[in-house]
Amino acid sequence: MKDVTKKYSNGEVTVLWKPGLCIHSEICFKGLPNVFKPKERPWIQMDGADPQTITDQVMQCPSGALSMKENQEENNGSALSIQVMEGGPLLVKGEVTIQTGSGKMQKKNPALCRCGASSNKPFCDGAHTKIGFK
Q1: pLDDT under 50 in the chain at which residues?
Q2: 15 and 51 fall within a common domain
Q3: Are residues 50 and 107 in the same domain?
Q4: 3-class DSSP state for residue 96?
């Protein structure tokens, strides 16, 4: 499921969700519960808000698991930023190349594991919550 991308569209905007990147920060459904409903299927209800409100909320996703189809442009050489999420991963904003033992990969907005418990290293899989990482 790590490379799966699910699409949710209302005809005007399309939300892309990559479950393999999701760190379950809950920012999406706490910020916009009329759209993001994790206990329902489909869990993203595109008729729950106007396109700009949905876009604004999606852009707050700390891991990049949620993105907008029209916002998939390249980083274009702009500066990267890294945010330390309290009790959680390092949040990289921008597209980066990551060199691992098995090769290189391009990632946009990855959440990198800081606790060491992820089963998807170097990426966060939410294990920090299970082990009580501070």
Answers
A1: 71-76
A2: yes
A3: no
A4: strand
